[in-house]
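Homework help board

Subject: predicted structure for assignment chain

Our instructor gave us this sequence and asked us to write out the predicted structure in token form, then describe one feature. I got the tokens but I'm not sure how to describe them. Can anyone check?
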Amino acid sequence: MSAKRITIGRTFSQTPMQAETSGNAQTQTFTLATGKRALFRFERIGAHELGEKTFVRIETNGRDQAGLTPESLKDITRTFKLQQFFPAIGIRQGDRIEILDGSRRRAAAMLCKTGLDVLVTDADITPTEARKLAQDIQTAREHNLREVGMRLQALKEGGLSQKEIAGSQGLSQAKVTRALQAASVPAELIALFPVQSELAFPDYKMLLTAHEQLVEKGETVGALVGAISQEVDAICAKDDLVADECKNRLLRLIKQASASLVPARDKTVTHSLWSFADKDRFARKKVRGRMFSYEFNRQSKELQQELDRVIEETLQKYLS
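My token output:
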């Protein structure tokens, strides 16, 4: 007798989800972490209303929507126009539906301009129950370190310490620290990578270092992105580069550019302190960045001595 074939992929089993049939409407009952049961009904959301009628919160879903680029969704969009294998899971919130599970499918549907199948509940589910349910049913691609960190940031902002976050989420304190560091990388740098799930902790550390170098020089991430945008486009356009090779080239480019980027020199601004009929005489102040100076020409010796006295008194007052 042959062994029973093991099912590969996501399945809706009878535990904890129980399939039910009510007429022609497909329904699904989910048992929440608190023991409460919630009935979900099948809905088809049209392509034209998908963006307006549905939304995703990272605090619940855990997926960084900015990271759902066309390149990262190729495994779904390849077949999505033909069929959607599993419905997304959502909770009705007023006139809209919050997607607990299936935000990649939602993004793929919007990219392919097709509708989305969703199992939706009208049950009164608390945010805690929603987060736990989302964690229980998410069996798709694992959230990357940054996405974990963005979810943990919400808990930290809610007043939890990193130790408390680690305990409540079943994570080590070291993992919490790494995830929060990954989440602190500016989104403009992360957006340079077409497949952000390829980034590992050493990559996030490098990007943080690049950001710190920019800050030390008084430069912005936007200035760096503008300086390397053409090279980034050229790297991403290479079809022969697999995702990790593309990532490594982009990291090298960012590292080199952040280290060599010369900050723009501040313009010198001149303020006239007094107007003179003679164009060769002047009293003015010059400011460039944090540096300033006073300049005088063709002034009396008495005025110079008085200025020296006032400046010395002022310095004594504020700096002694």
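Reply (TA_rk): Your tokens look well-formed. For the description, you could write something like this. Residues 143-184 form one domain. That's the kind of observation they're looking for.
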